[in-house]
């Protein structure tokens, strides 16, 4: 295994462990935090969501980063199959969840 592959594997393991924390202890993000992360995902990562998507997610946001990222990707039509697409979204969402808990 090359150094780059090992780093990717370690990074993925850390990401999985961090996500698992929220699956075990779900968090409900406030509406303003949900809107902020959706704005970030659409503005920075090019995720396409409708105003109705925003309203639906804000009204009943997923309570863990994995479910949140998968919902956003599915609404965009990308699905959760391509790691190149999924990982950047999941990392951004995880960061938001971690920030919400740290407050």
What this model shows, in words?
This protein has 103 residues and is an all-alpha fold. 76% of the residues lie in helices and 0% in strands. The protein is built from five helices and no strands. Helix 2 (31-45) runs antiparallel to helix 3, helix 2 (31-45) packs antiparallel against helix 5 and helix 4 crosses helix 5 (83-102). It is globular. The model is unreliable at 3-7 (pLDDT under 50).
Q: Short summary of the structure?
A:
This protein has five helices and no strands.
Task: Output the keywords.
103 residues, mainly alpha, 0% strand, disordered N terminus
**Count of alpha/pi helices:** 5
Radius of gyration: 14 Å
- Measure the end-to-end span: 39 Å
Helix-strand sequence: HHHHH
The poorly predicted ranges are 3-7
Helix content: over 70%
Main sheet overview = none
What's the topology here?
Elements: H1 3-24, H2 31-45, H3 51-59, H4 65-76, H5 83-102
Helix pairs in contact: 2-3, 2-5, 4-5
């Amino acid at each position: 295994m090359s150094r780059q592959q090992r780093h990717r594997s370690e990074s993925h393991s850390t990401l999985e462990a961090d996500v698992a924390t929220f699956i075990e202890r779900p968090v409900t993000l406030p509406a303003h935090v949900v809107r902020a992360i959706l704005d970030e995902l659409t503005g920075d990562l090019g995720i396409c969501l409708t105003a109705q998507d925003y309203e639906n997610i804000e009204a009943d946001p997923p309570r863990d980063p994995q479910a949140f990222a998968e919902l956003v990707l599915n609404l965009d039509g990308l699905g959760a199959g391509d790691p190149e697409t999924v990982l950047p979204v999941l990392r951004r969402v995880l960061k938001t969840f971690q920030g919400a808990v740290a407050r």
